[in-house]
Amino acid sequence: MSKFFQRNKIIPRYKLVAYVMLLFGVAIIVRALYVATAEREYWLEVASRLKKDSVFVDPVRGNILSHDGRLLASSLPEYRLYIDFKAGGKEKDSLWNVKVDSICMGLHEIFPEKSAAEFKKHLEEGHKKMSQSWPIWKKRVSYDIYSQVKRLPVFNLSPFKGGFYTVHNNARQHPFGSLAGRTIGDMYGAKDSARCGLELTYDSTLRGEKGMIKRRKVMNKYLSITDHEPVDGADIVTTIDVGMQDLSERAVIDKMIERNAKVGVAIVMEVATGDVKAIVNMTRGANGKFYEAKNNAVSDLLEPGSVFKTASTMVALDDGVVDTSYVIDTGSGIYPMHGAKMKDHNWHNGGCGRISLARAMELSSNIGISRVIDKYYYNRPEKFVEGLKRIGINEDLGLPFVGSSPPRIAMPVKNKKGVYAYASKTKLPWMSIGYETQIPPISTVTFYNAIANNGKMVKPRFVKQIEKNGEVIQEIPVTVMREKICSDATLGKIQTILQNVVEKGTGKKAGSRTFKVAGKTGTAQISKGAGGYKSGIVSYLLSFVGYFPADNPRYTCIVCLQKDGYPASGGFSAEVFHKISEGIMAQNLKLLVNDARDSLSIMTPQVKNGNMIASDYVLSKLNIKRNKNWDGSYAAGNPIWGKATNDNKTVTLAKAPVTAGNVMPDVTGMGARDAVYMLESRGIKVRIEGRGQVESQSIPAGNKTKKGDICTLKMSI
């Protein structure tokens, strides 16, 4: 031990320090226990004021796209515009007094339905109250409008200096208006809740996953601490073709107006894949306007009528009980059938007499088809129904829609006495001609599509892939439900019969001079439940289903109209089929530009007014020189509306001012597609007369409009 270490003095000092530290530690522990027990509730309350946990962050809902990538439904930001008059202090106030007239003039140019004086009166009222949340405009506006307002004096300053700020929400937009509305689906108002259609079926895919942030107060400011980021929803690419859908809707509505029909349905299906290219569900409202109120194409369980005769004939041919040359005596058009009268449509003209089975199909003879089925299946009706199941007419398609219904075809069973449980002996013959069964239009068109597809039945496909950030993350494959619905021999005979129905039978109105069509008409009375078929005014289901071109089928189409009273003929639907098929084939024509060249050709094209960003894209691919006063790319997808002028060398594309949502825009000089898109996106219904580009519009540009207004566009070439 060193002689310099004075133990008697140093050790007591060490002990004193150790005792003090021990007491201090004990005090800390005691205080911690006291805080954790006696003061627990108090400090939890303090903590709750300094943090906000579990604040959810909504993801961006995915888009619904057409088959070629055009937006059918999208969540786009909409903005409410406000100003905080207390922001910026005296410096802002002095600038406001100088610039208020310029601001109001600028707002009037952006929102022409309100004058500059009205804007000034409104804003001065808010300034007088020194409101911190004074609305500049009463409605939500698009990003384009917001950007224009943001460039005005004072509003172009930061929110803390100028006071201009926005509250934005994601709103579900349908750029093509109500086009295929019931199939695409919709949302419940401002709620993030799907209501119907593909929006509901693919809700989990489109919705994405919510993120979460924690908010903590540090030095009088809340800081956001991300727990996990939101995962935006994926996009679904549908099979819908916008051009075919628009064409089909207009053809159906025109015929509904002409024939005073209540409901109109049309489905266009691609033969090889089952892709549904167009699906129309139109109902006439009490006000005379047309709405997609219900997805009738997949949910209407109605007796199909004579379009079912194809299935009955296929079963008989495939079972080998008859051939197409089999002769039936249909008499004078009225035949006694187990105590009831079976009538042909031409009974008042003496009927069809003795005809072959093939001719019975061509003339849609009820007696001809029902006598064959009654003769060969009366004692074994279950074999006929089994044959219907074998060919797939009653297949449950498992469609991706709430409310879709499978076909209903009752299988006869024997009771204890060995008697078939059918309530009436007439059930089987009437079933053979499309009564006593319930089949939705989508099932009928799927069956006929299998005939066009050389016997292969494919499931209707509405979505072909799912994308995320431009990359395909899931392919929806073509689903083959049956490789063969019948023998090749039977199929060939049915295909010939259906082509003859159009060429020399009841389906002539569906035919075309430029390509071959095959199909079948149908007319059926609609049962009114307990009231039967003839209570009050008789209602009819008028149908035509077929495929084209018949020698190399590409598309199958069904058209169904429901109407009350006479006249009632499947030929009405055949006329709609004709318009749809002719239009689709015309859209698919592809001509080479070199074929149009001659010594007098001017190779700078005439560009219509309308979406300049699309015109610019096309011109760039053609290497044609162009001038423009805006920036943007076709890939961005947002239309830029304007006018085009050109000389022999250059095309000038000029952006036009955007009018407010309730002001009629000028669509003269536009093509039908751009004009319809612009007007229907504003809630205006469009009727088109003629073809070419818009020559005049029934509602003049600049007039105020409201949702549901009808504007007639006269087109000329």
List keywords for this structure.
717 residues; alpha+beta
What oligomeric arrangement do these chains adopt?
Answer: single chain
The percent range for helix content is: 25-40%
Mean pLDDT: 83
Number of strands: 31
Q: Tell me what portion of residues adopts beta-strand conformation.
A: 15-25%
What separation lies between the terminal Cα atoms?
118 Å
Individual helix count: 21
Helix/strand-derived category reads: alpha+beta
- What best-fitting shape do the alpha-carbon axes yield? globular
Major sheet summary line: 7 strands, mixed
Q: Return Rg in Å.
A: 36 Å
Low-confidence parts lasting 5 or more residues at pLDDT below 50? none
SSE layout and pairing:
Layout: H1 7-37, H2 40-50, E1 51-57, E2 64-65, E3 71-83, H3 89-110, H4 116-129, E4 134-135, H5 143-150, H6 159-162, E5 164-173, H7 181-184, E6 186-187, E7 194-196, H8 197-201, H9 203-207, E8 211-218, E9 221-228, E10 235-238, H10 242-259, E11 263-270, E12 276-284, E13 290-291, H11 296-299, H12 309-319, E14 327-329, E15 334-337, E16 340-343, E17 354-356, H13 357-362, H14 366-377, H15 381-391, H16 427-432, H17 441-452, E18 457-458, E19 463-468, E20 471-475, E21 480-482, H18 488-504, E22 518-525, E23 539-548, E24 555-564, H19 570-587, E25 610-611, H20 612-621, E26 625-628, E27 641-646, E28 650-655, H21 672-680, E29 685-689, E30 693-697, E31 710-716
Parallel strand pairs: 2-10, 26-28, 29-31
Antiparallel strand pairs: 1-8, 2-3, 3-4, 3-5, 6-7, 8-9, 10-19, 11-12, 11-24, 12-13, 14-17, 15-16, 18-21, 19-20, 22-23, 23-24, 25-27, 27-28, 30-31
Helix pairs in contact: 3-4, 10-19, 12-14, 12-15, 12-18
